[in-house]
Amino acid sequence: MHRVIFAATALFLAASPAFAACGGSFGTFVSGLKAEAVQRGHDRATVDRFFASVRQDPKVIRADRAQGVFQLDFTTFARRLISQHRLNAGAANARKYDSIFDRIEAEYGVNRGVLLAFWAFETDYGAFQGDFNTLNALATLAHDCRRPDLFRPQIFSALELYENGDFDPARTTGAWAGEIGMVQMLPGDIIENGVDGDGDGHVTLKTSAPDALMSGARMLRHLGWRPGEPWLQEIDVPDGMDWSKTGLRTAMSPQQWQQMGVRPRSGRWLSDQPASVIIPQGRKGPAFLAYPNFSVYFEWNQSFTYVLTAAYFATRLEGAPVFDAGNPEPGLSDKQMIRLQRRLVARGHDVGEVDGILGAKTREAVQQVQQELGLPADAWPTPALLNRL
After folding, report:
1. Where in this chain does the entry annotate a coiled-coil region (predicted)?
2. Exposed / middle / buried, residue 311 (Cβ in 10 Å: 0-12, 13-18, 19+)
3. Using CB atoms within 10 A of its CB, is residue 175 exposed (0-12), middle (13-18) or buried (19+)?
C-alpha cells in the first residue's frame, strides 16, 4: 500500500524517548528496539527470538531510492499497468469471489472494482507479493534516518503479529517497504483492520483472498470510504473554461460544473456530491471528475499518478470505457522537471521534495505560476512554461 501511518500511532511514538533513534550502528539500533519492546511489556525471551534473525538489507534502501515509475505521465503509466490480462483476471476473480465481494459491499460499502484494482496493481492478484524479508525491510527503513517515524512503529506491530502466531520473522516476506500479502498491508494496518474472512481463526493475507479482500475493505472504510458512493467519472471539458478551478483544491457540485460546460463522457452524473475536475495532462488531455471517495485513495498511496490510475482502473473493471487520452502538450523530462521545481522554489512556491516527480504540490505550484504569468492555469508543466521561467 505504501501508506502513511495512522496519526494516533505517530503521536504515541512522539512521546517515546526512543522515537527519534535512527542511524549509527545497526546492532546498537536493534538493541534499542529490543529494549523498547521490553519496556512496552513484551516478554524478553519472545523479543530475543523475534529479533534473532534480523539483518540490515541494502537492497531495501536501493528500492526506496529508485521509484522512477512515478515519473511517468498518467496515460503512459495507465497503459503500462492496465493490461488485458489484468482485465480478464479481474473479471475471473470477481466471479470466483462473488460471495466475498457481496459480503464486503454489504458490510463496508466498498465496490468490488476498487479492491480488484488494488489487488491487481499491488500483487497481480496475489501472483507476486514481494520477496523482501519483512522484518529486515522494516528494520532497515526504521534505521535509515529519512522516515524512521513511519517504519519504527511497524516493527512493534510485527512483534504483536508474531505473538499471535501470524508472523514469522525469518520467513515472512513482502514488499520492500514492509507491506504483506495480496493487497500489501503494513503490520500496523493488519493489527487494526485485519479480518478473518475465511473463518480459520487467523488473518492470513498472503494465502487467503477472503482475508486480504475483507481486510483491505475494512481499512478503506476506516480511512473514510463513503459506502455506496462513486469515486471517479470520466468527463468532457469545454475549450476555454476557467482552468484555475481544476485540481483537487476546488470542489463544486456536478450541476455547477455542468453550467461551466463540463459533461459526463457517457451516461449521467454518478452523484450530486461536491467533486473536483482533474486533468492530469493539462487541458488537452484526459479529464475526470473526482468525488469525495477519491481522497481516500491518497491514504493508501500518495502518488497522484498511481492513485488516479488505480481509481480509473476500478471504474474500468466495473464497465467504464477506455479513457479518451486526448492530445496533450508534451510534458517535461526528469531533468527538466527538476529544473522547473527549482525555479518554482526560487519564486517562493512549495513543491515538496525536488525529485523530478509531478506530485500534488508541484501541480499546485505550476497552476499558481501559470496564473501569475497569465497562462491557462491547467497545472500541466510544459517546455514552454519552463522557458518562461
Report:
1. none
2. buried
3. buried
Work out the end-to-end distance of the chain between its first and last CA atoms, rounded to an integer number of angstroms. 36
Cβ partners under 8 Å of residue 245, min gap 6? 252, 260, 277
Return the residue matching grid coordinates 510544459.
382
pTM here is 0.89
Rounded-to-integer distance, Cα 357 and Cα 341, Å: 9
| Whether 176 contacts 59, CB under 8 Å | yes
Q: Which CATH class is domain 232-317?
A: mainly alpha
**Buried b / exposed e across 99-120, counting CB within 10 Å, b at 16+?**
ebbebbbeebbbbbbbbbbbbb
For residue range 96-119, what is the model confidence (pLDDT) as tens digits?
A: 999 999 999 999 999 999 999 999
Beta strand segments in 52-191, E: 132-133, 173-174
> Using N-to-C axis directions, what is the helix angle for 304-317 and 74-81, rounded to 10°?
50
